[in-house]
Design brief:
By secondary structure, the chain is an alpha+beta fold. Helices cover 34% and strands 31% of the residues.
């Protein structure tokens, strides 16, 4: 399994994914689940994936080679809008299902994939989508300014309480890392290192792409600081006066 999160902020996008793949206790590996298509100054599109690694890799390869959409073959380098990019990604998911679905079904393997697709093309608004295994998708909005895939439940509470569209990019990075740390502590199928991407709205280029390892000083300080803060908050809460001593 995995955990990926995308924050949709006024200042831009913050995207974070782990790198652990798990095909059983004897088959734990590290693979990047973040792919980027960038034409600096013209477009930046990033895709994060959760679920079956073979399926997500096949989807990305089809997006590179070309996918049929409304009678024409397109790639992420030539679609005119982010909405079209989401449609193209959904079409790629369905194409992989048509090819591999029957063989997977014969082996009792679910067609398990979920994708986050975020970026900006030209002078159009930045957008962030979640693409499901059926190829359909939803979009982040001001009311819901973050999307998650994979093992999302452990890292969701902090985002629900704090993230708003007005959250700054630097605060977004901190919140995404706290969300990831909560997941790392609670689920062994999510693991280091992490892949972080920061995109600043209106630039059509990656502002920061960073591999975060166990010995990254800032991430270590976040992990320790968040744990200490939670313990202090717990101690500061009043005891229930209706429980007998």
């Amino acid at each position: 399994m995995t955990y990926c999160v995308g924050l949709y902020l006024d200042q831009g996008l913050v995207l974070l994914s782990d790198t652990r793949t798990n095909a059983g206790v004897d088959h734990i590996s590290t693979f990047s689940k973040m792919q980027v298509e960038e034409v600096p100054g013209e477009r930046m599109i990033a895709m994060l994936s959760a679920g079956n690694l073979a399926i997500s890799q096949a989807v990305w390869n089809r997006l590179q080679e070309g996918v049929m959409l409304e009678g024409q073959t397109h790639t992420l380098r030539d679609v005119p809008t982010m909405f079209r990019a989401a449609q193209l990604t959904g079409a790629a998911v369905r194409a992989v299902f048509e090819t591999d679905g029957p063989a997977l079904r014969a082996q009792n393997i679910a067609f398990d994939v979920a994708l986050l697709l975020g970026g900006q093309i030209g002078g159009q608004p930045q957008r962030l989508f979640m693409v499901y295994a059926a190829g359909n998708f939803i979009e982040a909005t001001e009311d819901t300014p973050f999307l998650q895939i994979g093992e999302h439940k452990y890292g969701k509470p902090i985002l629900d309480r704090v993230v708003t569209p007005e959250t700054s990019l630097v605060d977004g990075v901190k919140l995404a890392l706290i969300s990831m740390d909560s997941t790392l502590r609670s689920n062994l199928t999510v693991g280091m290192p992490l892949d972080l991407l920061v995109y600043r709205e209106g630039t059509q280029r990656v502002a920061l792409r960073k591999r975060i390892t166990d010995d990254e000083p800032y991430f270590r300080s976040v992990r320790e600081g968040w744990s200490n803060s939670l313990r202090e908050a717990y101690r500061a809460m009043p005891l229930p006066d209706w429980v007998p001593g």
